[in-house]
Amino acid sequence: MKVSIGIFLVLLIGLQFFRPVKNISTAAPGPDDLSVMYPPPVAVKAVLERACYDCHSNNTHYPWYAEVQPVGWWLADHVQEAKSHFNFSTFGTYAAKKQLHKLEELMDEVQDGEMPLSSYKLAHSDARLTTEEVKSLVDWARIVHSQLE
After folding, report:
1. Backbone angles phi, psi at 7, to 5 degrees
2. Which residue, of 3, 98, 107, 142, is most buried by count of CB atoms within 10 Å of its CB?
3. For the chain, what is the radius of gyration of the CA atoms?
4. How far is the first Cα of the chain from the last one, in angstroms, to the nearest whole number?
């Protein structure tokens, strides 16, 4: 038993030397960022920043536990997958039809309570959206959608 625990600890310590690349940008949001293209009201921008951008933009604010492997790898994979579905930072590079579709998904996912993910809300209680915040976010997305049609 002691040998097994020792091997486990050596492996765990060894894993700490292999870290994923972090999704951090020091640059200001560029012209392809959805919030730059279609500036939201201040309250909606705050919701986007605290509940969406960590996973769906090119700038993640990592919690302390992201420094512990293999949790850091899991978070990196999660962010990469989220960005592959919707990346606010590169919204302007999407084809017009894809932009419309992504806004529809945003509205549906937020209204249905599918976004933010439950696992994200567990660790980030400030990402829990009130009914008013959901309405404001969806209303803004609906306005953007109508401008793109």
Report:
1. -65, -45
2. 107
3. 18
4. 65
Whole-angstrom distance, CA of residue 59 vs CA of residue 14: 28
Q: Give residue 58's identity as a one-letter amino acid code.
A: N
Decide if 56 contacts 83 (C-beta within 8 A).
Answer: yes
Q: Which domain holds residue 49?
A: 2-148
The per-residue pLDDT for range 50-68, each reduced to its tens digit, is 999 999 999 988 888 888 8
* Residue 84 structure tokens: 């592959």
Q: Read off the pLDDT of residues 77-120 as tens digits, 9 standing for 90 and up.
A: 889 999 999 999 999 999 999 999 999 999 999 999 999 999 88
pTM above 0.90, yes or no: no
Identify the residue whose tokens are 């999704």.
23
Count of domains forming the chain: 1
